[in-house]
């Protein structure tokens, strides 16, 4: 009987990405192995997302060079899903020893060669687990398979929970992006192809699309091409912030929910319009006068009370009086807190 501690760890892994990343070493300790991979496999795009590997620094090498010839993926996925298998029974050890995958990848990582694994097909994804032992330790026996089998129902529930939570999060995000006032949001692939857009591009926005080969493509001006490449490079994609006049273009790495392929999430924000909406919402919420509303717009735009007075042609004492009234209505005591309150409005 396995301890309840590993059951608790598996349960936590279904709810928290951090716990999933820590699950591999815990499973390895319970099953007496030197290495563990927990993978989400999408054969269509040739991507493998590794929640934990025995050498995380080698993940990119594995994805780029050995995914197609990994004996576990090539043979293991043809076996019965949801059941532990010692791959030694199905894959000759020589297929490891004589292959490029073993020579270039596994031999560098302490001679791992014996493999035991299982996989599940859940919510359009395949989740694969594989455990490795060094050649000198010896193969997995029936007792090891039985221990692994006893964990599989809990692991299946954890993966299913993870998949459904991700689906719900993606659905909620897209609903929010479709609301009126949501910033222009675009999903683009690494070839600059338009995958999804939440509403038509404003005429004056600094992002444009063209049609090429029957597909809409993102124009790559203003540094957008380089930002998309950085976000979709795989592994640890990088975020970028571009500024074009009153527009801010945020580019972040994401994964397509069905396929997990790398995409760029592009948010095109009209910062002037957002600031105006924040001031308007604050005026309604706090019952501001027109003069106080104009002062809010200046403060949110980075102007000082003196700057505001000079531009408005009013006495600084009048502006300070408006600021004092404004702080009282917002329940704050400092000018910086006024700006913080304004910035927290929905926009």
UniProtKB/TrEMBL annotation:
InterPro entries under this entry?
A: Sig_transdc_resp-reg_C-effctor, Tscrpt_reg_LuxR_C, WH-like_DNA-bd_sf
HTH luxR-type domain location = 285-342
Under the GO molecular function aspect, what terms does this record hold? DNA binding
Protein's organism = Sphingomonas montanisoli
Its protein name is Helix-turn-helix transcriptional regulator
Which terms under GO biological process does the entry name? regulation of DNA-templated transcription
